[in-house]
Amino acid sequence: MPDMNLGDVTIHYEEAGQGPLAYVYCHSLGGNSEDFIQEFDFWKKHFGRVVTWDNRGRGKSSQAAKYNLPLYASDLARLLDGLGIQKAVAHGFSWGGVLVQQFAIDYPEKCAAVIVDSSSSEVNVAASERWYNGGERARNNQRGEGGREMRPEHIDSFVAMSRAIAGLREHPLTPRLKEITCPVLLVVGAGDVSTGGPGGAVIMSRQIRTNRLQIFEGVEHAVYVQKQEEFRKLTLEFCREHGIIKGG
Hints:
- The protein is of the alpha/beta class.
- The chain has a single domain, classed as Alpha/Beta hydrolase fold, catalytic domain (Rossmann fold), CATH 3.40.50.
- The chain contains eight helices and eight strands.
- Strands 1-2-4-3-5-6-7-8 form an eight-stranded mixed sheet, sandwiched between helices.
- Helix 3 links the parallel strand 5 and strand 6 (111-117).
- The radius of gyration is 17 Å and the shape is globular.
- The N and C termini lie far apart (36 Å).
């Protein structure tokens, strides 16, 4: 099981393939690196290298003294440096979509492209309270999304992630999206109640200088899972259009 010691935290990751370009998956609030391993063969074939990793305090990564959104993004940047990856197509699902926005803002030189899947750059009052309260429930009864039991060592990070999303109400990433220099693919389900529908993705599309927005009918959360074939085709087409990968 590969782990990388970054000094203040040890990050667990899984990878396949080699090369300076990689397709990198960033998991959801209740997920971990194992969620994407079954996708390795497909993405390796097109990008040469694929990586999935556990955020600090989640999955098999170690706990840490501090948790905040810039630190999660920093962990990804340092992990890529340690793996010798010069450029990444960073795919963030749900919470991971928030993380990759911060990553693209803070580390533009490391981004070949960003894929924001079922996420947003801001939340309204009701959503903010829901995310915050979800973190507090996890702290009190050690259960996360869907009432799933949570290991004690994962709770602090889960709470921090929940608060970071809740904080997008008063401190949205939206005003900073203009700083993103790489192309961004925005995908969301028309019926995604977790993100309040496609409105958040539409807001993002109006701020990011180079982007493509695709709203999928009949989809709730996790476009890459619910519309796997369509998502794969769209992603490859997008990356070819921007010269990130080659092929017909």
